Structures are given as structure tokens and as C-alpha cells.
Predict the 3D structure of the following.
Amino acid sequence: MPDTAPNSAVIERTSEVDCALDYRLDGPTDFLFQIHALDGMDQEVLRESLDIVPALPHRVYADPTLNHRFLRLHAEPGELTLRYRALVRRRIEPIEPDPAFVPIADLPDQVMHNLMPTRYCESDLLGRAAYKLFSHLAPGMAQVQAIVDWIHDNMDYQIGSSQNTTTARDAYLQRAGVCRDFAHLGVTFCRALNIPARLVVGYAPFDEPPPDFHAVFEAYLGQRWILFDATGMSPLDRLVRIASGRDAKDVAFATLFGPATMTSMAPLISPA
Amino acid sequence: MPDTAPNSAVIERTSEVDCALDYRLDGPTDFLFQIHALDGMDQEVLRESLDIVPALPHRVYADPTLNHRFLRLHAEPGELTLRYRALVRRRIEPIEPDPAFVPIADLPDQVMHNLMPTRYCESDLLGRAAYKLFSHLAPGMAQVQAIVDWIHDNMDYQIGSSQNTTTARDAYLQRAGVCRDFAHLGVTFCRALNIPARLVVGYAPFDEPPPDFHAVFEAYLGQRWILFDATGMSPLDRLVRIASGRDAKDVAFATLFGPATMTSMAPLISPA
Amino acid sequence: MPDTAPNSAVIERTSEVDCALDYRLDGPTDFLFQIHALDGMDQEVLRESLDIVPALPHRVYADPTLNHRFLRLHAEPGELTLRYRALVRRRIEPIEPDPAFVPIADLPDQVMHNLMPTRYCESDLLGRAAYKLFSHLAPGMAQVQAIVDWIHDNMDYQIGSSQNTTTARDAYLQRAGVCRDFAHLGVTFCRALNIPARLVVGYAPFDEPPPDFHAVFEAYLGQRWILFDATGMSPLDRLVRIASGRDAKDVAFATLFGPATMTSMAPLISPA
Amino acid sequence: MPDTAPNSAVIERTSEVDCALDYRLDGPTDFLFQIHALDGMDQEVLRESLDIVPALPHRVYADPTLNHRFLRLHAEPGELTLRYRALVRRRIEPIEPDPAFVPIADLPDQVMHNLMPTRYCESDLLGRAAYKLFSHLAPGMAQVQAIVDWIHDNMDYQIGSSQNTTTARDAYLQRAGVCRDFAHLGVTFCRALNIPARLVVGYAPFDEPPPDFHAVFEAYLGQRWILFDATGMSPLDRLVRIASGRDAKDVAFATLFGPATMTSMAPLISPA
């Protein structure tokens, strides 16, 4: 069953992240990574380390607004290995039982852009579909919960069914996708209903292999961001957030400029 | 409420068709019209006339398989007016109460191609959506009736919401269209469920202006073609069929090759 | 360099076709095959055999207009193997040096539909692109030759770059595809320029593995169909035609209705 | 001929902006406007005024990074009129003759996101097309100039050819669009070639009516943003910038949440 953020007392969760990424470069390549755990919101990075082999000049910088971190580096042909380890504690506040829909006029300025369509979330194209499916419900939490349920019930989770270019529209049409597509569709339906929404990526434990980064989404209700996961694949309180963004293009764990191929990936997480 | 073909004793309906089309040509233009009432199936053309102004050489020929008629002509710049009048009698057999789904193996050879996707009916792309929406029902009539109901309940009939290039996929995404789009979506869902389906165009009386050609669809059940109309705009027993085809590209009332503009259109029909 | 149909004296080519197809069926499946060599046009089937294992009732029938043959059969779960062998002689007439563009008004009635867009060949959507690229050339052969050259020079032949749902529009956008996509794009550009065009599939020898069915296209010029191949992968005079159709949906070598998987394919051809 | 940014000594241009927008509201509506001239970059707002009828509470705030201004207001059913007037001086520095391509590794962090595809600028989908068209040129200015020329030569400027949902991909396919589409395509090709690019909207004088907001684009070369206009409709040195953003969704002059209709628009500009 789809999962929503926990709903009771303050919960503390401490997790160990151990993320290894290997690349083979056939030519010089620039990388933009987002693999650092967010140090902010309800999350504290207690300890972390980053190993890059071969040792290379690199830069870690934080987004000025949302504080998530980027790693930039330039590498020459050959092998490249990254290993990021972190101990992260989340302190999860309870969500009030029925967070209110925030009328447009009351949205904070900096949240307004989370109502707009983006590359992967064509909320303009799916506007009428969202309206047909969810407008009979009370604006806000009831709609988002219905969106999560609809996605869970009507979409097939199927590895290989989507590609790097698959958008919410595509996923909605083909009725299949992976976590990223489920999250994009959630974001898209929310925005179409005038509920600000954004994509969240992070480390999450899965019962079933293979290990992978996880994508979920946040909707803005009751004047705060609330996490939702339409896949129900991993408990939301175990998620270690890397970043949130408009859609997957904003928060890709790796963006490559050059002829490089990922040869292995192991973004592991375990309770600490 | 959506309409389906009548379901009782033999019905006879005689209609008077009076169709006027006007064009302005800014250059030499070739026309391919399909405006002649079909003389075949349950329909008999008792009397007809065609006036073309200015008088021009033209050719009327019939499709070798389905017998619908085409009118071809080449016209020079200036005004062109067509007027087609016909008296047509339909003799509508009752449909058996529950026509059976025809297994693929039992379909006639010449019907097989009505299972394939076409320009406007991407049944391959909407396959999983069709399955999610209708596969819990008994194959055949129950599904087609559910398709008609779904389209009627979930699509907005909205003039101007679609264009010449709008396909079933587009209409499904935008949840709006005109009769052509409704029919294309019906055809598409049927094909995705392995029920042969095709588009039907004809003359139909509407309560509300403006007069226009009508598009509905046929599904192949119980070893025959059965008419359905998801718009519910016009009684099916009053339809005078022009042609059936794979989709609207096959049965457009006018295909133009040249710089011509339609200046008025009045495809009228009335009980005789 | 792209190949066009031969241009001199009558050529005779005799080929041996040996096509083996293997399937694994996880449930009952209906098949519609098009693997028989065409017996007609410039081609004569001197000898042929079809072996189906296990032995199953099946039907071979010919398209009433174009004469290509279909094989229909229904199979139960398990293995299914087909082997089609044929000895085929082509007698290729020379093409006149510059076959004339046929004005719309002079096209035979039965060719008209080859001007229309289809599922894989959206000539309506690529109309202006075709016009921008090719309208400065004399209508007809010069344009088709320029189309073949443009495709050859501007598209990457790349196995895996396209899928079952890839259309000419998609291929044009991504500038990559396989023989089917190259042929669809050729068909599309031709139709957009008011030159009737259709897809042709057949057996063809390739220098490089893997063996596969081949797709090329035909344009209607000088009141006849002329073959073109934008891939330049195989000499056109060695092609053994299976069928021609509106696009790949019409002439797929196998259309499956059921949970079957092709486990191997070897459509071999060699000079006899 | 397409225009590029001026290339000589410092130029000063002072313009008078007088922008009137009228709406009819059939229900309560929230508005997000971007009509204020940018006070920053090479541009100084010497004087400005904003009149809203009826007088309504509203908020003007600036983007924290790029400094362009938003106007938010909530209005009840009825008429709404905005009038924004400003006196704006630009001081345009000469562009060095051949600004260098900036390697990815040398791009400022805050510019990196201008390499990513967005809702209207699918640089991922047009990557290979960009490569085929422009990769033979030296990276940087030569490519951007070739992009501007290609768009100018290969796209039809045609009012009504595009809609609110038209993207760079759509415009590229249909080979037609308006200034927004031309700019989106410029942005898209640049990003595909690893040149950061963004959309710029502003007030611009046109020789031909109707007056409208103008959209152009900026490419990041020589460690600065340089303006380009593929339409050639208005001299770039007369543009009064409102905002720059990822694409038109970021910098729409008006985003409406509610049943309102624009009844007239006059974004006038004249030399002061």
C-alpha cells in the first residue's frame, strides 16, 4: 500500500549511507553529481566522507536556496570511482492530521514556481485529466492522497518500461514506469490542481534488489512540504534526502558531459 | 446518455440528404471527396444528384472492397461549389442481445487489419490504459459498452479543442475533443482489446447547430459490425453512412491538394 | 552510398530464401505472419515449402489487391518453429532514366491512399519540413533521390535506437534509426511532397550480421512503383519482396496476439 | 537578417515603456505578472509607475538571484486593468569580437542549470539534430551564430502556428512559430551543444503590428550572457528586458489561476 509521511510523535532515524559509483571514461568528461546527503530540513549529517579514485580536483558547493550539495569534477579517460559515506540522523516531526490546502494567494513567493510545468512534469497537458480524476475531492490532502492511490493502483512498476526521456505524460499514457515516473506523475497531478509539488531524491532501503537511488515527491500543504511515495517500496521515514527540485533534471544523481559509462552503482543505506 | 445501435425489430428510416460545400481556390487544386451516401450494407440510395459549379470533369469511383464512393476532380482558381442530394433508405436489422466476442482465430481475414494501430488510433500506445480500464469486464459487448460510457463520462465535447492532427492519444491526454476524436478513442480502445474497430462517417441530424458531418465507430462483434456513438449527439438509426475506414484519414469528406479554402459547409439531413 | 533501383537492361536474379523463426509461448497465441515471398510483380516463386513444428492447422491467404500472402495460425503453449524456404526469380526491368512526377489528377484511384499519413508515417506533421528541405527541386525523381541522400547523410543507422513504436517523426527528431525507420522517413517525405509512397519488406543479403528482414520503400513515379533504399545496406536487385503496404503495421513479418516471445530469427537469403 | 548584440562602442538607449493589460474575470483569480522592467544588468529604471484598477492589494517582489520582479495579486470577478509605465536606460557594453566557448569545467556553478532541458526546451531530444547541424563548427560563437541563421532561414514566422503548449521540439518539427518558439529553439540547440542558454523577455518595438511582448535568448559565451534574436524583428539594443529564465514558463508576463480572460494587451515601447 502506498506510504505517506508518518503521522504521530517525533521519530528519530539514524542511517548509514554507503554509496559507490564506478565509471569508465573513453574521453575527458565533466561530472555534476548530487550524492551528498542534505544537511538541513529535518536531517543532520553527523559524519561524512568522500573518496575519489584517482584523486582529482573537485568542488562541492551548495544550492543557495535549498542547500542541497553538488559535486563537480573533470576527469580524464580511464576509470573513475566515487565513494560517499555518511551517518545521517533525521528527526521527523509529526504531520498535523489534515494539513490545509493553501490558496494561491497565501503561497510563499519562492514556492510559486513549483506550480509550473517542467520538462518531466507537463502539468499543463494533464490539467484536464487531473481535474476529471480528482476535482470532486476537497482541495488539498484528500486530493494528494487520492493521487498517490491512483498512481499505485493504475500504474505498473516495471523496470525497463521507461527511459531517460520519459515524462509524466508518457508514463501516464503507458501506465507503467519506475519510482521516478511515479513521482513525476504525482508532482504533475498536484501542480495541475494548484498544489505546489516537487521531486525528492535520496537513499532508501528496498526489500528487493537492485539497490538504487529513490525518487518520491513532496506536496506543499499546511504551509509546509509533505513527503509522499506512490510506489510504497520503502518506508518514508527511512529516506535520507539528497535534494529536492523541480523534476529529475534538477536532482539527477549524476549528469555527464562526455563519453563516460557507469559500470556499477551501489547506493546502499542501512539503519545505524 | 451515449447511444448504441437499436436493439429490437427491423426499423426503416428514410432520409433526405442535402449537402452543399463551397470553396475558394487561390490556385489549381485537386480534390478527393467522400460525400456520396453509401449504397450498400443496410442502406439503399433511392435517388441522388450531384451538381458541380462550374461544371468540371470529375470521376466517381467505388472502393473495390467496401464500396464507398470517392469523387475526384481538378479545379482551377476561383469559386467551386458542390451540391449533393440523395434520398436514402436504411433497413436496420435488430442486433442480437449480446453479440459474442470473436476470438482472433475466428476473425475473417479481411477484418484482421482493423486490429492494427493507425495514424489517428494508436492502439499500441494506449494498450495498457485500455487493459487497466476495461480488462476486468467480459470480452466483447460489455467492454465496448464500457468504452462508450467511459468516453462519454470522461471526455469533454468541445468544439475547437482539437485540430486536424489530433489523435486518439492526444484526445485521451487532453480529455476533450469533437465527435471524430470520441470515435477515434473508441476505435483505439477496442483495437487494444483485440476487438476490430473502424471509423464511420456520415450525415446525421443534430439538435444543436452547427450542422456538420458526423463520425462514429463500429466494433466487430458477433461476426458483424455494430455501430456505436460515444457522443450521444444524434440517434444512430438516423445516420446516413458515407463510408467506413481505418480512421479519419481514410474517410475524410474532403482531402485537398492545393491552396483552397472551404468557405461554407452545410451537410444537411432530414427525415423524408 | 544509398542505392536506387538499377537503371539499365533487364536483370535476372535468382535467390534461395531460408527463413527460420522460433517462438516460446507461455499461453495460447494467435499469429499473423508475412514471410512468404511475393509471387507477382517482377518476381516469380519457382518453388517453396513451409514447415511448422508442431504441425498445426493454418491458413495462407493472399491480399485481394496486392497479392502478398498472410499465414494465420493459432498455437497452444510450448515451442513453435516455422521454416519457410523458397526459390525466387526476379526479372528486373530497367527504369527509364527520369520517370516523371505524376500530377495528382493523373494518379490511379487505387494509389491515392498512398498519399495519406499513417501510424508510422506522419506526412501531415512533417509537411513543412519536407517542403523546406526538398521543394526547391524539380517534382519527382530529383526530390526522391534528394530524400534518399538526405536520410543517408543525416540519420545514424544504429541498432537499438528505435523501438516498435518509433515513427518517422520520432526518427527524424532523434536522427537515428534502423532500416524500418529510414524507410518510414522516406515514405513520409515523399507523401508530404504529393508523391505516393509505401513501405516494402523482404529478404535481403547484408554484409554485416545479424541477418534480419529488410525494409525499403517505393515511390510512385512515371506511373509505376520504384524501389529506393536509404540505408545502402544491401543491393536492391537482390531483394526478395514479401509485401508492400502503407507502413510497417501493414507488413510486419509477425503480429502476435498472446504471450509469445521470439527466441530466434534467421531470415537467410543467398544467390541461387 | 537575424540580429545579434551590437559589437562596437558603448551604446546608450533610453526607452519609454507603456504597458496596458485588461482582463475580464468570471470568478476569483490569482495573477502572477512579470511586467516590470528589470532594474539591473545593463539596464536602469529611471522612473516607473503601476496603476491597478480597481485598486487592489498586491505585492511586488524580486527574484533573489536574478532580480527580476514579480507582481502578485488576487482579484474578484469583474474587470481588471493594469498599466505599467517606465523610463528605462540601457548602457550596452560592446561585445568582444569572438567571445570564447566556456568549457563545462569553467562554467560558474549558478549557470550549470542552464544546460538542462526544460518544459519548452527539450535539448535532450534534439541533441543529435543539434550535433548533425552544428558540430562541424568551432564550439561557441560560430555555433550560436549558425543556430540563429538556421532558425531564421528554416522556420516560418507565423502568428497562430503555435500554442501555449508548443515546445522547441514541436516548433522544430512544424518549422513554424512565433518569437517565443524561435527563442526556445535557439536555447535548445545551444544547450544541446553544451552552451548554457536561457530565455529573455522584454519590451521591443516592432515595425509591424500587433504590439506584443518579445522573446529572445541569451547564450553564455566568454563568461557572460550575450543576447541573440533569431527573428530579426526588432533591434536588440532597443529591447527593455523584463526577465530571463529557463524558458517561457519561468518568465511568462502573466500566469493566471482562475477563470479570467485577457481582453486587450498593449505593451508599447518608444524611444525616449
The interface with chain B takes residues 125-126, 128-129, 131-132, 154, 156, 169, 172-176 of chain A (CB under 8 Å). Helices of chain A lie at 127-134, 141-154, 168-174, 179-192. The longest helix of chain A spans residues 141-154.
